[in-house]
Amino acid sequence: SAVISQKPSRDICQRGTSLTIQCQVDSQVTMMFWYRQQPGQSLTLIATANQGSEATYESGFVIDKFPISRPNLTFSTLTVSNMSPEDSSIYLCSVRVEGGSPLHFGNGTRLTVT
Amino acid sequence: QKEVEQNSGPLSVPEGAIASLNCTYSDRGSQSFFWYRQYSGKSPELIMFIYSNGDKEDGRFTAQLNKASQYVSLLIRDSQPSDSATYLCAVNFDRGSTLGRLYFGRGTQLTVWP
Q1: What digits encode the pLDDT tens for the residues A23-79?
Q2: What's the rounded Cα separation, in Å, for the pair A108 and B44?
Q3: Of A19, A33, A41, B20, which is most buried with the most CB atoms under 10 A?
């Protein structure tokens, strides 16, 4: 399976600021996804990061709030914009090496917004 | 509607017992199903996946799928204290494998006591 590195591992940010989370994979992968896990909750899919084109967002998530880039097959970023305390969560990058193969997760970014 | 339902528990079993975890999903046409384990403060790790009706065994773990009943389960035999974690059921609602977004249930917290 692929090795997935996420940065930063954690951060504390002030309300109204933005944070960009990076996800680097050690091999080319077909699919990259971004999930959110709020305290005590399960994983919620934010969007599919599409290589070379705009991300596909799930219902309830918008590009202005969560802009995503994926310039190549091994790297993606998620930005959490204009943060509020409700954005405090763990953000997880996940990848699928090839169609139909299982999803694997990075170690996550623990974000606290004060 | 993409819904994955799990009993949140907690489920508590003695060491050596069989733990049974259950999951139902909303779309009869779903094709692939996954069980993840998540230790506190860690990211989810894949335990098993199943695509076909029936049972699939891997060591102490058995996944069972009944597509007609829209039901998937995970049995853990000879449960160990190290199995204590939250178990997440995930379903791929996309009909083609090329998309492969996973949607997660809320998870069942399992405690195995010595």
Answers
A1: 999 999 888 999 999 988 889 999 999 888 899 999 999 999 999 999 999 999 999
A2: 10
A3: A33
The amino acid present at B2, given as its one-letter code, is K
Spatial separation of the C-alpha atoms in residues B81 and B102, rounded to whole Å = 28
Q: Which residues of A touch B101 (CB under 8 A)?
A: 33, 45, 48
pLDDT higher than threshold 90 for residue A108:
yes
DSSP E strands, B39-80 = 45-50, 54-58, 61-66, 71-76
The β-bridge relationship of strands A109-113 and A10-13 is parallel
Q: Would you state the pLDDT for residue A6? A: 97
Angstrom distance (rounded) from CA A79 to CA A69: 9
Q: Which of A5, A43, A107 to mutate to test the interface with B (most CBs of B within 10 A)?
A: A43
